[in-house]
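Notebook p. 47: complex prediction with magnesium ion.
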Amino acid sequence: MVMTAAERIPGVEVRHDAPSGPALREVVFDVEDLTVAYGGKSALSGVSLEVYKNFVTAFIGPSGCGKSTFIRCFNRMNDLIPSATVDGTILYHGEDLYGREVDPVEVRRLIGMVFQKPNPFPKSIFDNVAFGPRVLGLKDGLDDRVRHALEQAALWDEVKSRLKESALSLSGGQQQRLCIARALAVEPEVILMDEPASALDPISTTRIEDLMDELKREYTIVIVTHNMQQAARVADMTAFFSVEVDENRDARTGILVEYDVTSKIFTNPSDQRTEDYVTGRFG
Amino acid sequence: MSAAATTLVAAKPRGRVLGAVFMGYLLLSLAIGFALLLWLLVDIAATGLPYIDRALFLNDPSADPAIAGARPAILGTLYIGALLLVFTVPLGVGTAIYLEEYADKERWYNRLLELNIQNLAAVPSIVYGILGLAFLVRGLGLGRVLLAGAMILTLLVLPVVIIASREAIRAVSASIRQGAFALGATKWQVVWRQVLPAAAPGMATGSILALSRAIGETAPLLLVGALTYVAFNPSLLDQFTVLPIQIFQWTSRPQEEFKVLAAAAIIVLLAILLSLNAVAIWVRNRYQKRW
Ligand SMILES: Nc1ncnc2c1ncn2[C@@H]1O[C@H](COP(=O)(O)OP(=O)(O)OP(=O)(O)O)[C@@H](O)[C@H]1O
Ligand SMILES: [Mg+2]
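Predicted complex, structure tokens below:
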């Protein structure tokens, strides 16, 4: 028998308990031939994939291959970068996310985001979580809402006695869970996480990974990660991106190499480049 | 013998000498500034303090130094200060928010605007005085009134307030903005609930320092017609005087008594300026941690 890729990477255990296969799943995002450029230079080109409901979908790939660029397309955060242009389509439950009528503010209310570096507002812990509901005008039962979000983010017990204290007094791992709670407080459908654990210690990382397992019952989660063990542990589907270098034009463009069930990506990838990357032979 | 030990013991002596020289230079510059300031303050305090009495605050100026006071000038300065605050802060902060948050920096008119503001901050105050005389006093026909004085000082400090406010806005980290946008906040909500509170301490400090500079100004006010002798309380559309002008007038009198009165008035002016700075520090500390 041929040794699979994963067996050659110490420490990577692949989950085999993926629930019903993607074919039976409801599609949340349908990405069709997406190209993103900054000031005319394309950073990501021709990406097509589907993101399924109540799945954790991971994006992996070398630095600069456009993972952050891609994940920012799902909640139209790229709109905030003046030089960025997005071509192609992303359907969200069949509706064009970049359609003329679509209000990016409304999009971000349904599709939350957690950033690589914890970015709590310099306010109290309570006010951080309450910010989202407040800007949406959800004033009723604010206390319960904040509490529920903190509980979901597995932070409630640690902060329940100090809700009025500054969020900046929390540890990095707590701050990141606070940011997750903050995103959950507005009850989005999807949560995008761009390397949410990259600045955290292994224990905080484990907690956030456990959290994702919990959260995917209610939410659809998209995560960018550099940590392959992490992708293997938490993700149901994994997309591997890579950089295509055009020597003649000195252009580097991110492309989607392979997208499949996580166990397939890590044990039996169909593309040589994926295999090289997950086995650490990349570059 | 052990390389590790030697590197620990002897730093390069040249580095140390340079360090010591530099430290000495720092202390010297500090000492010069501090000593001069202290000398000035002590000198003025010694002369003026005994003459700070009810008469100084309550009486009109007079040819008789024994009963002369600075009431109209003190009130004039306070009025102008209040008007400046009301005029400059909304205008300056508004302009700064527009330039930082809304203006498309690629557009030529926004860049021109920016360049202009930078340059205006460097225009000498006397030039503003001439402008005020030409456009406010004569052009608009306001006459030589307090309002014209306040308006011209507003123009004078506005560029400084704008620049300070822009710095404060720029110092608000992008990650906070992104975090707020990602929660579905509108541009208005992001600016109003995150950026402004975060920038408030910097804006307040900058504005108040600019204001205290304006309150010490004499030249432009002389041109728009602040008088040296005013024996009634100021009002918006009336003639007026302010402390620096009263001080200037008293120091130019030959009698020794007036020089002493001037010293007392200087102490009052300093007290007003120092309290403004104290307010700036208080605002900064109050808002620094969280909002
Ligand atoms: N705001 C921007 N303006 C211009 N170019 C950008 C911008 N953001 C990203 N890029 C470029 O787009 C390409 C992809 O960047 P991106 O941040 O999406 O990569 P990434 O896969 O997230 O990398 P990493 O793993 O290091 O976070 C890079 O070449 C980068 O220089
Ligand atoms: Mg990235």
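Notes: The longest strand of chain A covers residues 27-38. Residues 1-11 of chain A have pLDDT under 50 and may be disordered.
Next step: compare against the earlier run before touching the bench.
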